[in-house]
Every structure is written in C-alpha cells, then in structure tokens.
C-alpha cells in the first residue's frame, strides 16, 4: 500500500471513530480514568492502543489492516456482553 493510501485510510478511520465517540460517549474526553494506575480502564486503553499499533504495522507491511474495518466501529462492552 502506498504511503498516501495508508495515510488516507488511517485518517478516515480516525474521523469515523471520533464521530462515533462524539455521538455515543461524548463524556469520554473529560473522563480520564485510563490515567488511574492499575484500573481496568487503563488496561483497556493500553489494549486498544496495542491493537492500533498492530494495525499500523500491518498497513506499513502492505497487509489489509483487518482491524481497521469500519463496518462496526463500536467497541465491545467487555466480557459480560
């Protein structure tokens, strides 16, 4: 994948996720529990960040970026779903 295509894909996914967050959970930009050491929110934040880094590395390797699928950008509610 060319650098411009990779950038565009990531930028579009960023816009879509920002819109989803604004619509579904507008409070999250103020609720910073992921900064509380040892909290479940901190663990989930790091898990999400790790997934994002894996996606970017895959895109840079020319892979499809399977977790960048925008058909369902909503995060899961956790293991009790």
Write structural notes for this entry.
With 81 residues, the chain is mainly α. The protein has one domain (3-68). The protein contains two helices and no strands. The chain has helices spanning 3-24, 40-60. The longest helix has 22 residues, at 3-24. It is flat and about 40 Å long. It starts with a helix and ends in a 21-residue tail after the last helix.
Q: What secondary-structure arrangement, pairings included, does this model have?
A:
Blueprint (H helix, E strand, L loop, with lengths): L2 H22 L15 H21 L21
* Span of the ends, CA to CA: 36 Å
How many discrete domains?
Answer: 1
**Structural Rg:** 14 Å
Classification by helices and strands: mainly alpha
- The number of helical segments is 2
Mean pLDDT: 79
Strand segment count: 0
How would a textbook summarize the main sheet? none
Give the fraction of residues assigned to helices: 40-55%
Strand content: under 5%
Low-confidence stretches: 68-81
Query: H/E element string?
Result: HH
Keywords, please?
mainly alpha, 2 helices, 81 residues
Overview in brief:
With 81 residues, this protein is an all-alpha fold. The chain is built from 2 helices and no strands.
